[in-house]
Amino acid sequence: MHDRLVPLDRVLNFRDFGGYDTPQGPVARGVLFRSASFHEATDTDAARLDALGVRFVVDLRRPEERGFEPNRWPGEACRVHFSDDGAPASFALPPHLVALLQSDLSPASVETYMKSLYREIPFDPRLINLYRAWFAELSEGGTGVIHCAAGKDRTGIGCALTLLALGVSEEDVFADYAFSNQAIDLEARLPRIQARMEERLARKLDAESLRPMLGVNEDYLRETFDAIAARSGGVETYLEDALGVGASERAALRERLVA
Fold first, then answer.
1. Is residue 6 part of a domain?
2. What is the CATH number of the domain that holds 234?
3. What pTM was computed for the model?
4. Which DSSP symbol is given to 78?
Protein backbone atom coordinates (compact mmCIF):
# COMPACT_ATOMS: atom_id res chain seq x y z
CA MET A 1 0.00 0.00 0.00
CA HIS A 2 2.86 2.40 0.75
CA ASP A 3 3.94 2.27 -2.89
CA ARG A 4 0.80 4.27 -3.67
CA LEU A 5 2.10 7.31 -1.78
CA VAL A 6 3.69 10.06 -3.85
CA PRO A 7 6.51 11.58 -1.74
CA LEU A 8 5.93 15.31 -1.33
CA ASP A 9 7.46 17.83 1.05
CA ARG A 10 4.41 19.59 2.46
CA VAL A 11 1.37 17.89 0.93
CA LEU A 12 -0.22 15.10 2.96
CA ASN A 13 -1.94 11.90 1.93
CA PHE A 14 -1.28 12.29 -1.82
CA ARG A 15 -1.62 8.85 -3.31
CA ASP A 16 -2.67 6.77 -6.27
CA PHE A 17 -5.91 4.91 -5.59
CA GLY A 18 -5.88 2.86 -8.78
CA GLY A 19 -4.45 -0.61 -9.16
CA TYR A 20 -7.12 -2.55 -7.27
CA ASP A 21 -8.46 -5.72 -8.84
CA THR A 22 -11.90 -6.00 -10.41
CA PRO A 23 -13.57 -8.93 -12.22
CA GLN A 24 -12.45 -7.33 -15.52
CA GLY A 25 -8.86 -6.66 -14.43
CA PRO A 26 -6.98 -4.08 -12.35
CA VAL A 27 -7.89 -0.41 -12.21
CA ALA A 28 -5.32 1.70 -14.05
CA ARG A 29 -2.47 3.24 -12.06
CA GLY A 30 -1.26 6.81 -12.47
CA VAL A 31 -4.71 8.19 -13.32
CA LEU A 32 -6.70 8.40 -10.07
CA PHE A 33 -5.18 10.41 -7.24
CA ARG A 34 -6.47 11.51 -3.85
CA SER A 35 -4.97 14.06 -1.48
CA ALA A 36 -5.19 16.55 1.33
CA SER A 37 -5.11 20.23 0.38
CA PHE A 38 -2.22 21.98 -1.35
CA HIS A 39 -2.02 25.16 0.73
CA GLU A 40 1.50 24.34 1.94
CA ALA A 41 2.83 22.91 -1.32
CA THR A 42 6.43 23.86 -1.99
CA ASP A 43 7.83 24.76 -5.40
CA THR A 44 9.37 21.27 -5.49
CA ASP A 45 5.96 19.75 -4.69
CA ALA A 46 4.36 21.74 -7.49
CA ALA A 47 6.97 20.55 -9.96
CA ARG A 48 6.45 16.90 -8.93
CA LEU A 49 2.69 17.30 -9.21
CA ASP A 50 2.94 18.99 -12.61
CA ALA A 51 5.00 16.03 -13.82
CA LEU A 52 2.03 13.72 -13.21
CA GLY A 53 0.13 15.37 -16.07
CA VAL A 54 -3.00 16.11 -14.03
CA ARG A 55 -5.83 17.38 -16.25
CA PHE A 56 -8.45 18.13 -13.59
CA VAL A 57 -8.81 18.63 -9.84
CA VAL A 58 -11.98 18.48 -7.73
CA ASP A 59 -11.63 20.47 -4.49
CA LEU A 60 -14.29 19.37 -2.02
CA ARG A 61 -13.52 22.02 0.59
CA ARG A 62 -16.00 24.64 1.71
CA PRO A 63 -15.37 28.29 0.76
CA GLU A 64 -14.19 29.23 4.26
CA GLU A 65 -11.62 26.44 4.15
CA ARG A 66 -10.33 27.53 0.77
CA GLY A 67 -10.25 31.14 1.89
CA PHE A 68 -8.31 30.37 5.06
CA GLU A 69 -5.86 27.99 3.37
CA PRO A 70 -5.80 28.69 -0.40
CA ASN A 71 -4.13 26.08 -2.58
CA ARG A 72 -0.66 26.81 -3.99
CA TRP A 73 -1.20 24.16 -6.69
CA PRO A 74 -2.45 23.54 -9.40
CA GLY A 75 -1.82 26.27 -11.96
CA GLU A 76 -4.03 27.66 -14.69
CA ALA A 77 -3.33 24.77 -17.07
CA CYS A 78 -5.40 22.42 -14.89
CA ARG A 79 -9.20 22.51 -14.71
CA VAL A 80 -10.33 22.95 -11.08
CA HIS A 81 -13.83 22.30 -9.76
CA PHE A 82 -15.03 23.79 -6.47
CA SER A 83 -18.27 25.05 -4.99
CA ASP A 84 -18.92 28.18 -2.95
CA ASP A 85 -22.52 27.28 -2.15
CA GLY A 86 -23.50 30.64 -3.58
CA ALA A 87 -21.56 32.49 -0.87
CA PRO A 88 -18.20 34.31 -1.00
CA ALA A 89 -15.18 32.80 0.72
CA SER A 90 -14.93 33.80 4.36
CA PHE A 91 -12.83 33.07 7.40
CA ALA A 92 -15.66 31.53 9.39
CA LEU A 93 -14.92 28.32 11.23
CA PRO A 94 -15.67 25.15 9.25
CA PRO A 95 -18.37 22.86 10.66
CA HIS A 96 -15.99 20.37 12.29
CA LEU A 97 -14.40 23.12 14.39
CA VAL A 98 -17.81 24.50 15.31
CA ALA A 99 -18.72 20.99 16.44
CA LEU A 100 -15.67 20.92 18.70
CA LEU A 101 -16.68 24.21 20.26
CA GLN A 102 -20.17 22.91 20.94
CA SER A 103 -19.04 19.48 22.15
CA ASP A 104 -18.11 18.29 25.63
CA LEU A 105 -14.93 17.10 23.87
CA SER A 106 -15.18 13.52 25.05
CA PRO A 107 -13.93 10.91 22.55
CA ALA A 108 -17.44 9.41 22.47
CA SER A 109 -19.09 12.72 21.54
CA VAL A 110 -16.54 13.42 18.81
CA GLU A 111 -17.01 9.92 17.39
CA THR A 112 -20.78 10.42 17.42
CA TYR A 113 -20.33 13.66 15.49
CA MET A 114 -18.12 11.95 12.90
CA LYS A 115 -20.68 9.20 12.35
CA SER A 116 -23.42 11.78 11.82
CA LEU A 117 -21.16 13.65 9.40
CA TYR A 118 -20.61 10.52 7.34
CA ARG A 119 -24.36 10.00 7.11
CA GLU A 120 -24.81 13.55 5.82
CA ILE A 121 -21.94 13.85 3.34
CA PRO A 122 -23.44 11.79 0.48
CA PHE A 123 -26.63 13.89 0.59
CA ASP A 124 -25.03 17.34 0.87
CA PRO A 125 -26.14 19.16 -2.33
CA ARG A 126 -22.82 20.99 -2.64
CA LEU A 127 -20.84 17.76 -2.42
CA ILE A 128 -23.23 15.95 -4.73
CA ASN A 129 -22.47 18.56 -7.39
CA LEU A 130 -18.74 18.10 -6.90
CA TYR A 131 -18.95 14.30 -6.94
CA ARG A 132 -20.95 14.62 -10.18
CA ALA A 133 -18.19 16.84 -11.59
CA TRP A 134 -15.60 14.23 -10.61
CA PHE A 135 -17.40 11.42 -12.40
CA ALA A 136 -18.10 13.63 -15.43
CA GLU A 137 -14.39 14.42 -15.73
CA LEU A 138 -13.49 10.74 -15.34
CA SER A 139 -15.76 9.96 -18.28
CA GLU A 140 -13.74 12.36 -20.45
CA GLY A 141 -10.42 10.75 -19.52
CA GLY A 142 -7.12 12.04 -18.27
CA THR A 143 -5.47 12.14 -14.87
CA GLY A 144 -7.51 13.55 -11.98
CA VAL A 145 -7.12 14.49 -8.33
CA ILE A 146 -9.91 14.62 -5.77
CA HIS A 147 -9.16 16.25 -2.43
CA CYS A 148 -10.48 18.08 0.60
CA ALA A 149 -8.64 19.41 3.66
CA ALA A 150 -7.15 16.17 5.03
CA GLY A 151 -8.05 13.90 2.11
CA LYS A 152 -9.80 11.33 4.27
CA ASP A 153 -13.51 12.01 4.89
CA ARG A 154 -15.20 13.81 1.97
CA THR A 155 -12.40 12.55 -0.26
CA GLY A 156 -12.59 9.07 1.26
CA ILE A 157 -16.28 8.79 0.41
CA GLY A 158 -15.69 10.06 -3.13
CA CYS A 159 -12.91 7.55 -3.68
CA ALA A 160 -14.96 4.71 -2.20
CA LEU A 161 -17.83 5.49 -4.58
CA THR A 162 -15.39 5.64 -7.50
CA LEU A 163 -13.85 2.27 -6.71
CA LEU A 164 -17.25 0.64 -6.23
CA ALA A 165 -18.41 2.07 -9.56
CA LEU A 166 -15.38 0.45 -11.16
CA GLY A 167 -16.14 -2.96 -9.64
CA VAL A 168 -13.53 -3.01 -6.85
CA SER A 169 -14.39 -5.27 -3.91
CA GLU A 170 -15.73 -3.76 -0.70
CA GLU A 171 -12.74 -5.24 1.14
CA ASP A 172 -10.31 -3.26 -1.02
CA VAL A 173 -12.48 -0.15 -0.82
CA PHE A 174 -12.27 -0.22 2.96
CA ALA A 175 -8.52 -0.95 2.84
CA ASP A 176 -7.92 2.10 0.65
CA TYR A 177 -10.03 4.23 2.98
CA ALA A 178 -8.30 2.99 6.14
CA PHE A 179 -4.82 3.62 4.73
CA SER A 180 -5.25 7.34 5.44
CA ASN A 181 -4.35 6.63 9.07
CA GLN A 182 -0.90 5.49 7.95
CA ALA A 183 -0.55 7.92 5.06
CA ILE A 184 -0.94 11.00 7.25
CA ASP A 185 1.12 9.52 10.12
CA LEU A 186 -1.41 10.77 12.63
CA GLU A 187 0.58 10.02 15.76
CA ALA A 188 3.57 12.03 14.54
CA ARG A 189 1.45 14.97 13.41
CA LEU A 190 -1.07 15.05 16.24
CA PRO A 191 0.82 17.53 18.51
CA ARG A 192 1.17 20.08 15.69
CA ILE A 193 -2.46 19.70 14.59
CA GLN A 194 -3.63 20.00 18.19
CA ALA A 195 -1.64 23.20 18.68
CA ARG A 196 -3.05 24.76 15.51
CA MET A 197 -6.62 23.87 16.42
CA GLU A 198 -6.20 25.19 19.96
CA GLU A 199 -4.89 28.46 18.59
CA ARG A 200 -7.77 28.86 16.18
CA LEU A 201 -10.44 27.86 18.69
CA ALA A 202 -8.83 29.61 21.69
CA ARG A 203 -9.64 26.47 23.66
CA LYS A 204 -7.57 23.70 25.20
CA LEU A 205 -8.10 20.35 23.51
CA ASP A 206 -7.38 16.78 24.56
CA ALA A 207 -5.46 14.60 22.12
CA GLU A 208 -7.65 11.57 22.88
CA SER A 209 -10.73 13.53 21.89
CA LEU A 210 -9.14 14.67 18.64
CA ARG A 211 -8.17 11.20 17.39
CA PRO A 212 -11.73 10.24 16.35
CA MET A 213 -11.86 13.38 14.18
CA LEU A 214 -8.33 13.43 12.79
CA GLY A 215 -8.15 9.76 11.80
CA VAL A 216 -10.46 7.43 9.90
CA ASN A 217 -12.54 4.59 11.23
CA GLU A 218 -14.16 1.90 9.09
CA ASP A 219 -17.32 2.31 11.15
CA TYR A 220 -17.62 5.85 9.76
CA LEU A 221 -17.63 4.66 6.16
CA ARG A 222 -20.15 1.97 7.05
CA GLU A 223 -22.42 4.76 8.32
CA THR A 224 -22.24 6.28 4.83
CA PHE A 225 -23.17 3.04 3.13
CA ASP A 226 -25.96 2.38 5.65
CA ALA A 227 -27.38 5.86 5.02
CA ILE A 228 -27.19 5.34 1.26
CA ALA A 229 -28.95 1.99 1.60
CA ALA A 230 -31.67 3.49 3.78
CA ARG A 231 -32.30 6.60 1.67
CA SER A 232 -31.45 5.45 -1.85
CA GLY A 233 -31.75 1.68 -1.76
CA GLY A 234 -28.07 0.98 -2.35
CA VAL A 235 -24.87 2.33 -3.86
CA GLU A 236 -25.75 1.58 -7.49
CA THR A 237 -29.09 3.39 -7.19
CA TYR A 238 -27.41 6.30 -5.42
CA LEU A 239 -24.73 6.52 -8.12
CA GLU A 240 -27.41 6.68 -10.81
CA ASP A 241 -29.99 8.90 -9.13
CA ALA A 242 -27.73 11.33 -7.25
CA LEU A 243 -24.56 11.36 -9.35
CA GLY A 244 -25.80 10.46 -12.83
CA VAL A 245 -23.63 7.33 -12.99
CA GLY A 246 -25.98 4.59 -14.15
CA ALA A 247 -25.17 1.16 -15.54
CA SER A 248 -24.07 2.47 -18.94
CA GLU A 249 -21.89 5.18 -17.38
CA ARG A 250 -20.27 2.63 -15.05
CA ALA A 251 -19.59 0.34 -17.99
CA ALA A 252 -17.98 3.21 -19.89
CA LEU A 253 -15.81 4.09 -16.90
CA ARG A 254 -14.67 0.48 -16.60
CA GLU A 255 -13.87 0.40 -20.28
CA ARG A 256 -11.71 3.50 -19.84
CA LEU A 257 -10.12 2.81 -16.45
CA VAL A 258 -9.96 -0.97 -16.06
CA ALA A 259 -7.38 -3.00 -17.95
1. yes
2. 3.90.190.10
3. 0.92
4. S
